[in-house]
Request: fold
Amino acid sequence: MEVPGFLPRAGLQQMISLLQDQGYRCVGPQLRDDAILYDTLSDADQLPAGIIQQQSPGAYRLQRIDSPRCFSWANGPQALKPLTFAPREALWYARVEPDGNLRFREAAADDEPLAVLGVRACDLAALALQDQHFLQAQPDPYYNARRRRLFLIAVHCSHSADTCFCAATGDGPQAQSGFDLALHETDEGFFVRAGSPAGQAFYQQLPLEPGDAGAFAAASREIEESALRQSRTLPVGDLERQLFDRLEHPQWQLVAERCLSCGNCTQVCPTCFCHSENEAPSLDGLSSEHQRQWDSCFSPGHSYLHGTTLRADTASRYRQWLTHKFGSWQTQYGRSGCVGCGRCISWCPVGIDPTAELAAICQPEGPHDA
Reply:
């Protein structure tokens, strides 16, 4: 096994400074309002050193321990999605000119170079799905501009949360592709591997030391053990067929009795891309901004069509979300729309677990199979 180069912990600041010198704004995980969120990063001391997390259905808690590690947690409520598919943005502007004519102006795309430190395997898999939608299926210039600016530094997960099931979806906990650099964290520092030509060029500039084979083997075992600790699984077989064969299953009503239709699951999901477009007129009536913002299939307006809300109840909305995410994405994009990050479980106010709902709906025997 080839042993990657080793970056001592003190060299992390040199990595950040080098990225800044090359014109990148650095973003990394930081403590904000009792959660781990991405924010602008200028100093390695801003990273959440000595922080671990406890996640369970409807619960997310952070705890401080005596450890130098900055990435001993699985994920926070954010993924990469807000950095590429903006929660709200202007697409174009309209204004009444002095001559009385209406003029339109396209909004400029944001292409600031951005280096993101601490990207997880599940979020790289989600980014690949977003790429399929916004770069191939529905080409979007705003997404494309943000996507091209990214330099991604992954960190393999050594501490899965109770809600994680990326091993079941095949997307983690070790990042396999989609990164420029990938890091194995140890108490002393980081084993570094390049994953792209840009990453390889940057790798050559880092103050790396020869890696120790024993230490690297131990770091790799941590990732393997992280996968083994995950207990949630998905039903086997063709989920698309199973779900669409059970559209009248009684479990849809049972989950609707608990679901609040709040849309939290879709907001924290790293692959959901539903959005609405709205006009934001100025108070003087002379100009307007055409905006795109995140929407959810749990909102009544999402299925509003010609005077009718097609999915008027919670049961039909939850069914739409689950059958699309785990079923019809297979036809659209060749794989499930779920990457096993577990955010929808942790951030659901009532603790609904989609893996449990899938197990109940797709059980091999029951009244729906009679």
Remarks:
- The two ends are 53 Å apart (CA to CA).
- The chain has 13 helices and 15 strands.
